[in-house]
Amino acid sequence: MKEKLQALCTEIETAMAEVATSRGLYELKVKFQSELKGVMSGMRDLPKEERPAFGKIVNEYKQDLEEKFETRAAAVKEMEMQAKYAAERIDITMPGKAYKAGALHPITLVKNQLIDIFAGMGFKVFEGPEIETDYYNFTALNTPKDHPARDMQDTFYLAENLLLRTQTSAGQIRVMEKEAPPIKILSPGRVFRSDDDATHSPMFHQMEGLVVDKGITLCDLQGMLAEFAKKMFTSSTKVRLRPSYFPFTEPSVEVDLSCSECGGKGCRLCKGTGWIEVLGAGMVNRRVLENCGVDPDEYTGFAFGMGIERIAMLKYGVNNIKTLFENDTRFLEQFEE
Ligand code: DAH
Which atom belonging to ligand 1 lies closest to the Cα atom of 305? Predict the structure, then answer.
């Protein structure tokens, strides 16, 4: 019987060394316990006086083997954990995934730059509504219903007196109605006209400026524009004013900048003239001041309005306005900083 017990223990011990999983070890332990029961049931055949001594031996073997099971279980568990760690290992030295950050659209870049330049001269930003009344967009700007100047801007009407603003000039009226001079505002925003070709889009952006105070003259306008041209383009950019007509200014001027491409010598961009037209401006018409309750004998002012797309096209050498609205990332990526 003792031999049988020894053989069983040796067999289990050998098998134990080969089992490499917790599950396998558990199954082996169950097998050992049931076989040990078999051995113990053989005790019945021993003479009564030998039974206690044999029982003691069985217990010793059992205890010894259980300890070995425990040791082996700890080793197997450790092996299993190591394998799990190896499988789940994250290589923190691997380079990270690069996520593409968005960038500002060239229109936004130019708008921000314009705001920066004029804010430096003391202008505050005012944003008016895109849906305007006929009064703010035209009538108060000295352009009543039958005025021929209305033909200069092909308007989208929403109702008889409601329209998509054709110019940010509407903001001038809103500001002057609310605030008393001195006024120095900048009004950026979207405007809409039924116009569509390589240099015109039905929706585009303008930047309006308005200065009203005592003693403002055309020289102030010219000086401020000269400063703007240098900051927006190059330090050698020159400004030229040509007589023009807008109902809301008197006198009115068309403002040209010396061509940034050829420096004024004449090239394809400036059509050989050396100058490029960039914006409209003038001294605020006294009728406009009166419409807003500002006394034109006490105050004078100047105003200007420019197309942001036009500035962006000149600055970045874009020749079709549609390129700015197609959102082709190959084009837009060039403006990432
Ligand atoms: N609103 C004019 C346009 O859209 C541009 C303009 C011209 C604005 C003269 C002005 C100005 O403020 O004084 O064509």
Answer: 8
